[in-house]
Amino acid sequence: MVSARAARHGTLLGVGAVAILGVLAYFAYGGGFPSTDASWTLVWGRELLHLDAPSFTADTPTPHPLSNALGLVAAALHPASETVLLAVGYAAVGGLLVGTFVLGQRLFGAAAGILAAVLLASRDTLLFYGALAYVDVVFSALVIWAVALEAARPRRGVPVLAVLAVAGLARPEAWLIAGAYWLYARPDDRREAAKWAVLVVAPPLLWATLDLLATGEPLFSFTETRGSTPETGRPTGLGGLLAEGPRIIARTARPDVCLAAIVGLFVAHRLGHLKLLAGALVATAAATAVPVVAGTPLNDRYVISTMALLCVAAAAPLALIVHGRERNAWRLAAAACMLVLLAGAVDQAPRLSDRRNDVVDRDTRRTAARDALGLDIPCRPLVVPNVRLVPVAASWLDVPLDQVLDGHRAVPPGSYLWGTEAAMRNLLVVEGRAGIAAPRPSAPIVRRRDGWTLMARCPA
Fold it and tell me: Using CB atoms within 10 A of its CB, is residue 205 exposed (0-12), middle (13-18) or buried (19+)?
């Protein structure tokens, strides 16, 4: 039995490791900035802070209760709001890496845990979405920690469900994972099982209640997400899932990790851990698949938790080499896996470098836009090239959403922030997605910053 003092020591050690890895990832990943989706949470957080109804519409991203709560806290700390979101985003990266290590260590030993965390940290998918403070990284960290808690003590119950309940306020996939876990681990005592079930049903009920209060529609998040799927151009439905799902998994985890993970599942079987690892993989993959079949889009950031579990499986063969208890054939297979992962690392390095350069480039151009806007503008409203900059500029200026307009809809007298085509690339006009910049209005120039121009034509 672990003493209370040892438990506190372990908790402090874990928190310290999360913080250190988050800071290291920040520099390794090239800094970053909140995505447009994250910027919407700041807009909604400001509205909640002023006791206004949040402006959830069909044109905005899906609102998530957990990220909205974070947006409320961050908005209260303006002008440091974006820094708060980025800090939480990188804390999530650190938490995901530590959770992956802990899971790998508990199943296959410390060496395998370290390798699993290194593999995950070097996936360019995690770099990109971690650097842009997507809530999906927070969700994935919570899911992996839930699996790690289960690995420490099988059928642990309430602690696992409690973590999944928090995850269920970030993404609905956690509802399905929690339901599957409840069916697997529920106690024989009906009263106790009913108590566990509260943690399963509470997140979807809370989400639906919040949607009902904000929009009058309890299924708003689902129906609006499904309704906007055609505009995203992303695969959906059973056909889209079967056609693109395996490719997205291979693209995010990379083929070397997927190949090594196959051997790793055999290793898990030999070491008695297949049920947990394979069960977690199936649960996370199925939880991602079900909403897609129901009509929501498939996105590579939705499979980060599955990617982390594949990294754990890929690291499992290292346990056979370190412990040296298996026959030569198994050790040769394990050594072959390590060579595959090494070759994969060589192939992954340029991708990782390109992603980092992309983050740094976007961050630089986004900072230039903020510098051009300044702390104040000659007059309002502010008009911007398209809707992607609307929540960002509203957050920068700390003004109500109706004070920042999409130039496609209206260009009344006011101030105008526009960028050159190169300055707006992949910030406002994203390659492979619908949406272009509105024509630049003609007005006197107030200031310029590295491709961005603030203009104004104020009413008399």
Answer: exposed
- Is beta strand 382-384 parallel, antiparallel or unpaired with respect to 452-457? unpaired
Residue found by looking up tokens 């590579």 in the block = 300
Of 190, 161, 154, 157, which is closest to residue 175 (Cα–Cα)?
Answer: 161
Sign of CA dihedral 437, 440, 446, 447: positive
Instruction: State the CB neighbour count (10 A cutoff) for residue 310.
Output: 31
Residue type, 143: V
Give Cβ neighbours of residue 218 (< 8 Å, ≥ 6 apart): 208, 209, 211, 212
Give bridge partners of residue 452 from the DSSP assignment: 419, 449
- Rounded CA-CA distance 334/266 in Å is 11
Q: Which residues have CB under 8 Å from 155's CB, separation 6+?
A: 184, 185
Whether the predicted pLDDT of 460 surpasses 80:
no
Distance CA 83, CA 77 (A): 9
Q: Give the Cα separation of 141 and 124 in Å (integer).
A: 17
Phi, psi of 335 (to 5 degrees): -65, -40
Local confidence band at 247 (pLDDT 50, 70, 90 cut-offs): very high
Within the chain, how many helices (H) and strands (E) appear? 20, 5
Helix (H) or strand (E) holding 416: strand 414-419
Torsion of CA 289, 295, 299, 304, to 10 degrees: -30
What tens digit of pLDDT does each residue of 41-82 get?
999 999 999 999 899 887 788 899 999 999 999 999 999 999
